[in-house]
Amino acid sequence: MKNDAKLRIGVLVSGRGSNLQAIIDAVAAGALDAEIAVVVSDKPDAPALRRIEGIPGVVIERGAYPTVEAFDSAIADVLEEHGVELVVLAGFMRVLGPGFVRRFRGRAINIHPSLLPSFPGLRAQRQALLHGVKISGCTVHLVDKTLDGGPILAQTAVPVLSDDTEESLSERILKEEHGLLVETIREIITARYKVHGRQDAAPT
């Protein structure tokens, strides 16, 4: 790969796509030396798909495949067909299996709405409130075979207020997710965090 080539990103989405929008905006503004090669959704009606004008979009529904392994393989095939170097899970609500992880080992990141390793899995903000913590936040981590358990790349803390609801805490954390995700991708591009398989990355 040439040193001046833009990092090719593939984004996986299931929902509203606000983190996807943050990446789109950062690329458009020249804040990321990258291009979004493809957006993949497991839901044909995901609002995120309405954000991708001019960006290739592919819907891969779990029900169309006989096994989880076949579903994961179909996603990986599409990403590879589009020359994706970095996979970004931005509100993708499915756990990817070992086969996918092997194909994109060290080249897939996820954004999660808690300070991992605390509160992995679904409804992390509700978990934080139920446990009475005073600080929550968001984490970007590498994807591995564990649920929200891959190596942590970056975190941002968010205070939990006395009158917070799950919805209010979620919205405040989400605002921080946008900046953290973009900044982490920027650091990957500048090779502060090594992306395995990218040949022009500087030594760390």
Provide an overview of this structure.
It is globular, with a radius of gyration of 17 Å. Residues 198-204 have low confidence and may be disordered. It is built from five helices and seven strands, in the order βαββαβαβαββα. It is of the alpha/beta class. α1 packs parallel to α5. The protein has a seven-stranded mixed β-sheet, with helices on both faces. Helix content is 31%, strand content 21%. The longest helix has 24 residues, at 166-189. The protein has one domain (7-189): Formyl transferase, N-terminal domain (Rossmann fold, 3-Layer(aba) Sandwich). The two termini are 19 Å apart.
Q: Could you name the key traits of this structure?
A:
disordered C terminus, 5 helices, Rossmann fold, 21% strand, seven-stranded mixed beta sheet, 204 residues, 31% helix, alpha/beta
What is the topological layout?
Blueprint: E1 7-13, H1 18-28, E2 34-41, E3 57-59, H2 68-81, E4 86-89, H3 98-103, E5 108-112, H4 124-131, E6 135-142, E7 152-159, H5 166-189
Parallel strand pairs: 1-2, 1-4, 2-3, 4-5
Antiparallel strand pairs: 5-6, 6-7
